[in-house]
């Protein structure tokens, strides 16, 4: 059933970025669907809808959107924060093929499926009182290799390419696609010090922006977008 309330989907709701982003959009007045592998990313009742999904199978993405459409309405904001990776300090090419495929499915193929479904939803929203927005949680690996993180870097780089294509393709419709990359104040990679509250604040601001300066959104906690 269609809803007049703004709806957001957050994929990859874990205890850090995903949970903070889901809570922020709930605070902003959205009906939030939180998608996670375990269904344990948030306290019960803190979001409008909690969905369990295994994103190693991209076909599950359509089912997620259909459930959200049925329960809450068409999403006007979609955040893809799901991630899969393994680190190999000795030989990054030692990762087995099945693991590589699973990680690529989570990091890229399911993200691609989510972009396709998001566009369908954006097209169906008649009253676009706020921008239609897709945000992918990226990092610096789209710009260079870190050998121990082969599967993660492959997925981030590939999806950054898809995001850029989507941003250019749908600019005339006013649909916004972002690759978000948290950095230190000096512009260095944030590494393992990823800050969920910084992502939540920045994503909330991206959802309000009427104009897009770039699909690539490097940002610093407390400062927002900073071009490096």
Provide a short characterization of the protein structure.
By secondary structure, the chain is of the alpha/beta class. Helices cover 36% and strands 18% of the residues.
Q: What does this entry look like structurally?
A:
With 228 residues, the protein is α/β, with parallel strands linked by helices. The chain has five helices and eight strands; from the N terminus they run βαββαβαβαβαββ. It has an eight-stranded mixed β-sheet, with helices on both faces. β1 (7-11), α1 (17-27) and β2 form a beta-alpha-beta unit. α1 (17-27) packs across α5 and α3 runs parallel beside α4 (150-169).
Question: How would you write the strand order of the largest sheet?
Answer: 3-2-1-4-5-6-7-8
- What separation lies between the terminal Cα atoms? 44 Å
Strand and helix order: EHEEHEHEHEHEE
Q: Could you tell me the mean pLDDT? A: 93
The value of Rg in angstroms is 17 Å
Note poorly predicted spans: none
General shape: globular
What share of residues is helical? 25-40%
Strand content: 15-25%
Q: What class, by secondary structure content?
A: alpha/beta
The number of distinct helices, counting runs of at least 4 residues, comes to 5
- The total strand number stands at 8
Largest sheet: 8 strands, mixed
Q: What descriptors fit this protein?
A:
228 residues; alpha/beta; 8-stranded mixed β-sheet
Protein topology:
Elements: E1 7-11, H1 17-27, E2 31-36, E3 49-52, H2 60-71, E4 77-80, H3 97-124, E5 132-137, H4 150-169, E6 175-182, H5 196-206, E7 216-220, E8 224-225
Parallel strand pairs: 1-2, 1-4, 2-3, 4-5, 5-6, 6-7
Antiparallel strand pairs: 7-8
